[in-house]
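Structure ticket #2291
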Amino acid sequence: MGQWALHIMVGLSALALLHTYLIYPSLMRWLARGKSPNQDVYHPESNWPQVAVIMSAYNEEAVIEEKMAHLLDLRYPEGRLSIFIGSDCSDDRTNDIIAPIAAQEKHIHFFPFQERRGKPEVINELAGYARQQFASDGIDPIFVVTDASVMPAPEVLFKLVQHFQNPEIGLVDAHILHTGMQQQGISEAENTYISGEVRLKHYEGLVWGRMMGPFGGFYAIRARYFSRVPPTYLVDDFYITMRMFEQGGLAINELDAICHEAVSHEIQEEYRRKARISAGNFQNLTTFPHLWWPPVNPLQFAFFSHKALRWLGPFFLLLILAGSAVLAALGNLFWQWLFAVLTGGIILVPVLDQLLRKAGLHWLPLRGAHYFLAMNLALLTGFFKFIKGVRSNVWQPTKRN
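Resolution: structure written out below.
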């Protein structure tokens, strides 16, 4: 490979990273200027649609009592809310906590499954039960999919469901705020990243109605747009959203639909979670190539810019590193300097962050750089898991704070 080809390879890789992390978010912020959120909404006196809350739980004894209390506090017209909970063969106190509550509340339907199958399969089954409940009346309900660790505000259903007055909207995501930030862990870096993602998805919804997937912890979708997730798929919410786009629905988020979730502090836990998600990302990338390439319409451009390039980020970093190494070996002073900076940063950033952490010092830019490197390593790990083949979507949930 000639030097000119190496220059092009490094330049395009750097441009891809700049585009997904800086140019595209800046472009969306600029395009969203002056645009208003969906105004075609249900009003207090409206005939609100039926809602079915769907939740999969596995060994959630640390949070499930609080979650059940929040579900019981949800405000919605009487007789129009049903809750479907599936315990994925939990072997802790999860079932013992849920069962007596469900026995007292006729709108709660509890299914303590005896075989471990993974969250997507539980959601598939619960969606089927919910559809059966409304099928005889010809009702197309709103499904609200939630995680056990996400605590909704009482009025969150009104905030989400109001948008389904607009027949074009198929999915609405809630706004999950993190609690329990601590300087000594990665929580501040994680929160900074997620906050940026919330804003970017909001801009996508404002500009195109093409928000690139919900965060998965609490979102609403029209039942007719809900698609069964394949048995071995790991990222169910993104798969469901893409299938909805194929059917013509739009997706937005509602910043006033507030939920809370404890943020992760341990980089090892977050690495494990993101490596699993990464394998699922590559499943979706290869399942929906027609939705991101060529990036010529709003949906394809958003998918390509926001997701595809970001998921391929580790490979761009490796290409930059490899190209710089070869050019540096050819004696070019600039490339020798750049290669030294890149390799030194990759090695020293985690080491310095750990040393400062042990000394009780927490510098957010350094912690953020460590987080960026760790999450790209998780993406690379997930890619190799995907290449080896995902045989099951059963996994151990992140440790609850």
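Closing remark: The beta strands are 51-57, 81-88, 108-113, 142-147, 151-152, 169-179, 218-222, 250-262.
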